[in-house]
Amino acid sequence: xxxxxxxxxxxxxxxxxxxxxxxxxxxxxxxxxxxxxxxxxxxxxxxxxxxxxxxxxxxxxxxxxxxxxxxxxxxxxxxxxxxxxxxxxxxxxxxxxxxxxxxxxxxxxxxxxxxxxxxxxxxxxxxxxxxxxxxxxxxxxxxxxxxxx
Amino acid sequence: xxxxxxxxxxxxxxxxxxxxxxxxxxxxxxxxxxxxxxxxxxxxxxxxxxxxxxxxxxxxxxxxxxxxxxxxxxxxxxxxxxxxxxxxxxxxxxxxxxxxxxxxxxxxxxxxxxxxxxxxxxxxxxxxxxxxxxxxxxxxxxxxxxxxx
DNA sequence: GTCGTATAGTTTAATGTTAAGTTATATTAT
DNA sequence: ATAATATAACTTAACATTAAACTATACGAC
Lengths: 149, 149
Fold this sequence. Notes:
CATH topology of chain A: Arc Repressor Mutant, subunit A
Number of domains of chain A: 1
Shape of chain A: elongated
Distance between the termini of chain A: 23 Å
Oligomer: homodimer
């Protein structure tokens, strides 16, 4: 194990803190999903439909970053619970448009509110200006091909 | 969908950016693991042993935040590949001490170096002082029970 | 010492996930 | 029009993960 340079230590250190923060915050936020018995993917699908309106499976998949096979299963399970419904697109029959049912809309409205409250609670550890700053730094970091060496 | 307050919007916004950054960075860092055919958990175990020395499965589990059943499987798979070896603790026979083999040590040394380089590359999107700042904010955010309301 | 409790690790069943291959439909080139 | 290609969704097989039940070992009270 060779000694790490100062730059390397700093990068590792920051990386670790970033990962721990993300994990610690999400794990607490996701507890809200236990009650309505939603998986994270199921919540992601419902949330996407709630905020963007009806979508086809491909678009949902690219939104929540899951494989198409997985989306099929997630939608199956949501459909079994009557939270969404598949509607064949008649102008291009390869597509389904996935719609929230009334029950699905009610559920996600409530759950999203809880998740939102949980996020606000988590973020309250930071002052207003700190939140803004954190957002800026994360955005800069997340940009692909930032300052690749 | 009721209109979100300014505080709520800010919190959600920051949360989203944090999650995106974490995901975007890890997904690129983890690509390094494809070549040596290591899962993230396997890497986590090897890395823990590499930096902390031999550990029992319980300690490994609490380090990489996985269930005990999962640790058993991960260690099984690493043992099959001769990267680690279980040694029964004779003073308390309930425990195994998990040791890196020579092959395991060689592999994780190399892989960790690559991961490290990848992290440094990712973090290079931020200036030195920005990295430090990000680390501080993440630390503050990650602390349990920060300023719960 | 023996019995009850606690702990480390294993096993099993259920579920989520992906990658690869399949089917149905649409589009494009000829 | 027909053939080749592309695309949306589905299926399947492999594997990771967890929770819960289980086994083996240790410890503590009596």
